[in-house]
Specification:
12 strands; about 425 residues; about 15% strand; two-stranded antiparallel sheet; 13 helices; 2 domains; alpha+beta
Length: about 425
């Protein structure tokens, strides 16, 4: 009998709690409907904050995926050689001593463990032809450029090693450059003028879009040796090669080879820096993560401001509803009832703001990715799960924390004084 009574009592209490919560939520919604304008303005800070967090995290994750995808698209057998010695953390110094030469490039090209190699000299410049001028990226490179990008010229031929050896004045045009300068006219055999020097067009590349963080349709390719002459550069900016052996073994082989070529004595540090695709992926991930944290922290400030705004509005609400609070307490409402009422109102306010903020964040993320994709292909729409979870949790916590103090003030009001107050 006693056991049945206890079970029945618990069920009654549970039902009573459910009813009480429903009543509190219903009361909160009625209160918000009575003051629609004020409620909307109060939620604005939360909406903007949550929307900003979703937007920043989602675009950050999309950017990270794009960057890592661009790096990984070249394959895991990539080895990059940069000028200057590495620092303690393996990252080259901002102030490097140039050391890589055409001699190094030609020496490494003969090694059986080098499958393809590029030596680069790059410069933004203007190209003139056929009465037209366009801004391009002049890329001094080697014939193996098309191996890295897995492309073949749409018309004509690409650069040859003889062009590099003889420092020939020949050029291969990116698709957009060819269309801008020559329109429907065949560019092959035509002359383009770069930095007051004439180059004969021997090839035109197909439409390719974005590869490796750049629009290669706006490139003009010339032999790397000719680029050195054109821009008076003694050294290469970098060398990149695809290894025919495991990358770890390729690193120590290229270090030994370059140390011999540069006459570096035993015990002296390298005047070059060798990195792998894995190093670049790690660096890119760290940079994008730091940027996401920084931007999220900035966006979080608006959440704090929104929380303070909600607290202030709830204080005003308590003042306006003093007589109501006094009346409720006079007919038996406890301090916990009053406190719960105002906390639920604040949490309802922030929860609605959180849902609206998440919805707008997803929409504006999609809009931003569409805009970015028109400029740079390869971006994919992605919503940050962390951002959504963070938005929901933060909005609830803000309602609880910033709603507690006004609710506590309301609960502590003396019912007699509250009823007397106008």
């Amino acid at each position: 009998m006693n056991r049945c009574r206890i079970v029945g009592q618990r069920q009654t209490e549970k039902s009573s709690n459910n009813m009480r919560l429903r009543d509190l939520v219903s009361s909160a919604l009625q209160s918000l409907r009575r003051t629609k304008g004020r409620s909307a303005l109060t939620m604005l800070g939360i909406i903007i904050g949550i929307m900003s967090v979703i937007l920043v995290l989602s675009i950050g994750e999309s950017a990270q995926r794009f960057i890592l995808g661009q790096i990984q698209s070249f394959g895991s057998d990539l080895v990059i050689i940069l000028n200057g010695p590495p620092q303690g953390d393996g990252v080259p110094s901002a102030f490097t001593t140039e050391s890589l030469t055409i001699r190094d490039l030609k020496a490494l090209r003969t090694k059986e463990w080098v499958r393809a190699i590029i030596g680069a000299v790059e410069q933004n410049d203007e190209v003139q032809a056929n009465g037209q001028i366009t801004r391009v990226k002049v890329t001094g490179t080697t014939p193996d450029e098309i191996v890295f990008y897995e492309l073949e010229p749409e018309r004509g031929v690409f650069l040859q090693w003889e062009d590099v050896d003889e420092r020939s004045k020949v050029a291969v045009l990116g698709y957009e450059v060819a269309v801008t300068l020559f329109g429907q006219t065949d560019p092959l055999g035509q002359v383009v003028r770069i930095n007051r020097q004439n180059f004969r067009v021997v090839g035109v590349m197909p439409r390719s879009g974005t590869r490796g963080f750049e629009n290669i349709d706006k490139n003009v390719y010339i032999p790397v040796s000719s680029a050195q002459d054109l821009y008076n550069r003694k050294y290469l900016m970098a060398m990149t090669f695809k290894s025919a052996i495991p990358v770890g073994e390729a690193i120590w082989r290229v270090r030994d080879e370059l140390r011999d070529l540069h006459n570096i004595s035993l015990g002296d540090e390298d005047d070059f820096n060798v990195q792998t695709q894995e190093d670049f992926v790690k660096s890119a991930s760290e940079i994008t993560n730091i940027l996401q944290i920084l931007l999220t922290s900035i966006a979080a400030i608006s959440l704090l401001v929104g929380g303070i705004g909600i607290m202030n509005i709830m204080y005003v609400t308590v003042t306006e509803r003093t007589r109501e609070i006094g009346l409720r307490k006079s007919i038996g409402a406890t301090n916990n009832d009053i406190r719960g009422q105002f906390i639920v109102e604040a949490m309802t306010l922030t929860s609605i703001g959180g849902v609206v903020g998440i919805t707008l964040g997803v929409f504006f993320t999609w809009l931003a990715i569409q805009g970015i994709s028109t400029v740079q292909t390869g971006w994919t729409f992605q919503v940050s799960t962390r951002g959504v979870v963070l938005g929901l949790v933060v909005s609830a916590v803000i309602g609880l924390v910033f709603g507690y103090f006004p609710a506590r003030r309301a609960a502590l009001l003396n019912p007699i004084e509250a009823l007397r107050r106008e």
